[in-house]
Amino acid sequence: MSVLDPASTARPRRIVAQHPAIRDDIGDLTTRRPLPGPRLSQLDPFLFLNHHGPQVYPPNNHGLPFGPHPHRGFETVTFILEGSLAHADSADHQSVIHAGGVQWMTAGSGIVHAEISPPEFLRDGGPLEILQLWINLPARLKMSEPRYTGLQQASIPTIALAGGGELNLIAGEFEGQRGPVESLTDVFMSTLTLTAGASHTLPAPAGRQVFLYLIDGEVSVGGDDVKAQHLIELEMQGDSVELTATTGARLIFGHAPVIDEPVVSHGPFVMNTREEIVAAIDDYQAGRFGGLAQ
After folding, report:
1. How close are the terminal C-alpha atoms of the chain, in Å?
2. pTM (2 decimals)?
């Protein structure tokens, strides 16, 4: 990838394409997925986004269906917008994260984890909306030691935006504050809540890949209207993103360095070669990821 001259790209980024979140339910869990999609296999280093809900579960429900399963070679970022999520993994991390919270898990060399609904939610039901994003790791970090950070809403800095709304800072720096997650690959990650009429110009340094997903509401990017439940692909040139909200809106906004390496994925494993995928399967089946009781 060529080095971009910041002076030549000091302008807002333009939209390349909008990618819809396509319906792909998992049992009774309403699920939409914009990435990967028919016209976009990845947005390097961003690999995958599932948008679960919004929906309301009745009392005495079965909850989330994500029992113990393995991962290797990437990170997961899970945004709990409504409801709650119980996490347990083979590295002895456990938590229950509630609405407004975030989970950041580095699968690294290999981990088995479960993401299920806690007993109270199974008993009482209620609203649920959860998004999970997969972020790739470069070859030099794919075998990093697994780690996990669970953040309740109160642990995430909320920064008021002058034009209306707020930014919840998960990782990276914004207006002199730093998010609580220290990313292995210098990822900036946040959620935005915009009020109707809000207008903001957010920094997005040239050459970094922007991740912008409109959860709900009506927003324009650089003067062009974008659609709710769409992933907005932006050009690499430019050093900012201009957002204007027609109605109240929620978004995920992040950016990260491009890895620019081969990506070979097989289910829950993301590596650089087919041989590494075979090794991941062998290691998991041999119990080298550790175990997690059902």
Report:
1. 45
2. 0.95
